């Protein structure tokens, strides 16, 4: 019997090729999208699940409670030894520090290479906590001695052109010869550790003395602490016990520290600590469901509409003895065949678009990830569910057809499916499309608002050049002066970072003037020379710039500091002294700059002080004339290389760096555009199929109307008005839904765009336009046909 079902199903599908094509392509797009989304979800949900003791591995974070809460994936440098020695909760504790863009020189028997590389400084127990096996160099990682390193196989090939490099050496930052003691197996793609070169923690003191020390005075996010807990530990009890550490080691601090243990499996999904927002996974899952729902609605609408034309076939089958269940399963078989073809085509779509998908999200998904029992279970479930839900309603309609009425041709279209049901399903399609389009518009407007708004500083034609950490002051000023002499260079400044840099932030306590205690808030340090405000176009609203001096006794602050201090005006701060960084820096406020965005738009503007502190400078900012930038950059390269012989010249334009801060939002926008387009495409296919059906059904009516004097425009209006009403109803439903969710999303931003009514009007009008184009093609084709030919149509 099943063989007969398949044979008849195949004949029916070939008989109505256009409708079969519409159903197959619509479902294929839905299946292809769901496969890509499966890969994305599976990739993210698999992070760090390969470690043997992953359920007992925790990172220790800090919540800094002051006037607000800051989340740091780190603890003070002294924490690890205290936790290791004074508490009995863990088997192992290890610190790891990250340093970016360090210079590596390789000279191996005539093989020479120079590169800049991110380096992790790790304690030896780090590799006893995590499961990163060695492939060369023994059975255990050896990093207990200074000037030793381990690296991954991929990094070994990158550095030396071969994988077995145990015993080879390289020079780090031009002064430390490092010996390689082991080669690690390449890390899985789903590891949150991306560094591939690990140097002994003993060497960190040469690069970052604060992180290498034993103090409680501050926190740097470049230093992380991990622990392997003993079995069956109560995390809440441990965190409660750790409450005494700040009281003991930071008794005078106004910042209240809470030390929190975060399981390894949660690190990837912790947006407060720089991880992925888990809401993105929900968005992906819902959008994927939307696409399959739209494709399923197409199938139901078209199939139920065709039931009228198959009524005689059903009548004959019933007269010959077919039961309702036979007819029901016959139609389900047809649905299953269509779904099976769509699934195959969906796999092809997924394979074709996977590289684009990887580029969009900067990940490395592979089709080989589909070769698992989990995927086959997932896709089989989707295939069965979609086939059953899409085919059951039309199948029930056909099985209920009364044979006598069918054979006499007296069935009405309501006998083969309620028109209100079809309208409801079409409205559902339109609602989903309008929601996606309106969301895309709002996300786009927020990104445009963030990137193109006045940030309070100039970001155009400024190039940022990293400089060695050990640069001497005289070399820095010599380089600045020589760069200023280059035609096309307008100004040069040495600094810790640019005004809006989210990285390299340095927050510290502040005591204002004669107040006996530090304030309840932190102040951000923008360490820079006297050319900083002119280079970045910062505006002085009171006082003057500080002078170039050998001592740090003058600072600039921003307007926000006056507001946080409760002063009536910025001028009140002039001449007052501030003490920061544990009162190691004391200086007089000589000027106030207008507020600028020191981070992205998700954060409020912080109180800021700008002070000259050469030892902390990590970059040179060069303001260029936008004309002849290529030639100017070449000259800058020459001057830079003359000063830093043997180093690698690198640069980044500031406007590109600012745009990168909104990379997550750009991904949201790209996601919205892609899936909005797919939803519209699937909807158009279904709409075209319905119009094709309705026009064919009313061909004689069109002929009669033309004979009676109707023109083409009135015929077009006849078919359009009903669908345009459905679009308006969908718009009324979609508008509040979209407004609610987009308003919630915008709450993440302290500075955000407004949601205007015309965003939704644009979405509705766009769907109307697309609907009209879809309707017009087939309607006009029949409307221009001779009435004689139309009236002869059966």
Automatic annotation (TrEMBL):
Major subcellular location class: membrane
GO-annotated molecular function: transmembrane transporter activity
Keywords, in A-Z order: Cell membrane, Membrane, Transmembrane, Transmembrane helix
Domain of life per record: Bacteria
Domain MacB-like periplasmic core: residue ranges: 20-243, 431-626
Key word Acyltransferase present: no
InterPro entries given in the database record: ABC3_permease_C, MacB_PCD, Macrolide_Exporter_MacB
The protein's name: FtsX-like permease family protein
């Amino acid at each position: 019997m099943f063989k007969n079902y398949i044979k008849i199903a195949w004949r029916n599908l070939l008989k109505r090729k256009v409708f079969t094509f519409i159903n197959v392509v619509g479902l294929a797009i839905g299946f292809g999208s769901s496969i890509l989304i499966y890969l994305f979800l599976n990739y993210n949900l698999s992070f760090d699940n390969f470690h043997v003791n992953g359920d007992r591995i925790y990172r220790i974070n800090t919540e800094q409670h002051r006037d607000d809460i800051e989340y740091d994936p780190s603890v003070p440098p002294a924490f690890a030894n205290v936790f290791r020695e004074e508490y009995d909760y863990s088997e192992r504790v290890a610190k790891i520090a990250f340093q970016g863009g360090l210079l590596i020189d390789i000279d191996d028997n005539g093989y020479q290479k120079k590169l800049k590389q991110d380096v992790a400084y790790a304690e030896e127990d780090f590799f006893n906590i995590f499961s990163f096996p060695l492939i060369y160099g023994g059975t255990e990682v050896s990093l207990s001695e200074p000037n030793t390193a381990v690296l991954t196989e991929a990094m070994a090939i990158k550095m030396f052109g071969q994988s077995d490099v145990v015993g080879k050496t390289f020079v780090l930052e031009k002064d430390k010869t490092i010996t390689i003691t082991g080669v690690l197996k390449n890390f899985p793609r789903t590891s949150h550790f991306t560094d591939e070169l690990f140097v002994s923690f003993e060497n960190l003191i040469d690069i970052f003395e604060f992180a290498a020390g034993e103090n409680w005075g501050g926190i740097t996010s470049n230093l992380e602490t991990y622990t392997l807990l003993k079995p069956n530990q109560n995390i809440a009890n441990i965190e409660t016990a750790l409450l005494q550490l700040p009281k003991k080691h930071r008794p005078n601090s106004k910042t209240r520290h809470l030390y929190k243990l975060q399981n390894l499996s949660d690190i990837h999904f912790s947006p407060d600590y720089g991880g992925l927002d888990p809401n993105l996974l929900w968005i992906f899952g819902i959008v994927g469901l939307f696409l399959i729902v739209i494709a399923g609605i197409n199938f139901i609408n078209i199939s139920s509409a065709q039931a009228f034309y198959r009524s005689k076939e059903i009548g004959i089958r019933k007269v010959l003895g077919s039961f309702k269940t036979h007819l029901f399963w016959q139609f389900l078989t047809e649905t299953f065949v269509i779904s099976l073809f769509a699934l195959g085509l969906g796999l092809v779509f997924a394979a074709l678009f996977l590289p684009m998908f990887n580029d969009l999200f900067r990940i490395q998904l592979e089709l080989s990830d589909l070769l698992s029992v989990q995927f086959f279970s997932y896709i089989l479930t989707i295939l069965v569910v979609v086939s059953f839900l899409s085919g059951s309603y039309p199948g029930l309609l056909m099985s209920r057809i009364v044979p006598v009425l069918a054979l006499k041709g007296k069935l009405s279209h309501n006998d083969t499916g309620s028109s209100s049901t079809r309208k409801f399903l079409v409205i559902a399609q339109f609602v989903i499309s309008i929601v996606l389009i309106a969301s895309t518009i709002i996300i786009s407007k927020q990104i445009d608002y963030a990137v193109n708004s006045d940030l309070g500083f100039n970001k155009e034609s400024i190039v940022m050049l990293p400089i060695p950490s050990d640069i001497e002051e005289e070399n820095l000023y010599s380089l600045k002066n020589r760069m200023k002499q280059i035609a096309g260079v307008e100004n040069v400044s040495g600094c810790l970072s640019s005004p809006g840099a989210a990285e390299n932030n340095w927050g510290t306590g502040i005591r204002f003037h004669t107040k006996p205690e530090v304030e309840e808030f932190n102040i951000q340090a923008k360490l820079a020379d006297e050319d900083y405000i002119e280079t970045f176009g910062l505006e002085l609203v009171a006082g003057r710039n500080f002078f170039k001096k050998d001592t740090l006794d003058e600072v600039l602050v921003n307007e926000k500091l006056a507001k946080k201090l409760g002063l009536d005006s910025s001028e009140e701060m002039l001449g007052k002294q501030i003490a920061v960084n544990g009162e190691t820096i004391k200086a007089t406020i000589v000027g106030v700059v207008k507020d600028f965005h020191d981070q992205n738009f998700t954060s409020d503007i912080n109180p800021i002080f700008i002070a000259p502190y050469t030892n902390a400078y990590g970059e040179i900012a060069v303001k260029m004339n936008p004309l002849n930038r290529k030639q100017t950059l070449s000259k800058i390269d020459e001057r830079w290389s003359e000063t830093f012989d043997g180093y690698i010249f690198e640069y980044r334009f500031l406007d590109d760096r600012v745009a990168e801060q909104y990379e997550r939002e750009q991904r949201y926008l790209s996601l919205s555009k892609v899936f909005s387009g797919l939803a519209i495409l699937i909807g158009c296919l279904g709409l075209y199929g319905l119009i094709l059906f309705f026009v064919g059904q009313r061909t004689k009516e069109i002929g009669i109307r033309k004979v009676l004097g109707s023109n083409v425009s009135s015929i077009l209006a006849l078919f359009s008005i009903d669908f345009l009403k459905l679009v308006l109803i969908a718009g009324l439903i979609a508008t509040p839904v979209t407004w609610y969710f987009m308003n919630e999303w915008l709450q993440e931003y302290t500075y955000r765009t407004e949601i205007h009514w015309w965003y939704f009007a644009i979405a509705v009008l766009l769907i109307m336009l697309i609907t009209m184009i879809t309707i017009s093609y087939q309607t006009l084709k029949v409307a221009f046909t001779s009435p004689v030919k139309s009236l002869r149509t059966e």
